[in-house]
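Hey all, quick one. A colleague (J.T.) asked me to put the zinc ion job into the tracker so the inputs and the structure tokens live in one place instead of scattered across chat threads. No bug as far as I know, just bookkeeping. Sequence used:
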Amino acid sequence: MARIPEPHYDYQTEQLAGYYQAAVRDILSELDRIDLDNFRRSNALATLKSISEILSELDEKSSAWVEKNVPKAATDGIVHALVALDVAKTVKEAEKIVAFNEVNEYMVAAAVADTQTDLLAVTQNVDRKTRAAVRKAVSDSMRINMTNGTNGRRSITESVRKALQSSVNTGIIDARGNRWRPEVYADMVVRTKMMETYREAHTNEAVDRGAFYAKISSHGAKDLCRLHEGQIIKLTSDAPGNYPTYDELKATGEIFHPRCKHVFSTIRNPF
Ligand SMILES: [Zn+2]
């Protein structure tokens, strides 16, 4: 069997995270431009319009990114199965014959849609937060003017600036209450989804070709994944033998966690 390169999507995921970084930077500079000594509704409308333009451009770019890259991860997973099962002698040869079977066609479409929805939640949250902060800044600005000449003026201005800036820095708050910066969350979502898509496409191709087992990859992991390196899994729960399925291992939380880089390589017979 030819050597199969481990999937690496650092270049692509860094590109996506870069879109988020740039958008955050642009929004922050819109907010920095706000003149709190004289911030009125009409100014606020102009600021909000600029921010929503930045966010819709970000949505367009990240949506196109997902459409291009998530199917690529599926292709790589299928190529891996074709080489592992000796259907193709080399990765190059496999790349020429790779095709999405029906279940992969469906899985990839769902993965693209899911990823886009997860990323959209980030921009929607930033949009909501910045809108609220900008509206509050209008009333705070009026308050600042009323305190003209007093010592309180400076500290109010500073706290309004801080509130405006922090409205951009939380991309999402997860179920555990952790705050994620937009670019960090987007990076985590796509890294995780790319690897899941890779594994699922690999599984679907293998099962379609009558191979129901796989061996988990090894790269000397330091986290709990290490307990599972080289382990045999079943690709379908009705295959004979006392091996865990992918879903069962994933449910332990020890391996195939968010950002996990482990994959598996299908084999016809584990016995
Ligand atoms: Zn892992």
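Adding what we noticed when we looked at it: The pocket of zinc ion is lined by residues 221, 225, 255, 260-262 (CB under 6 Å). The CA atoms of residues 77 and 198 lie 4 Å apart.
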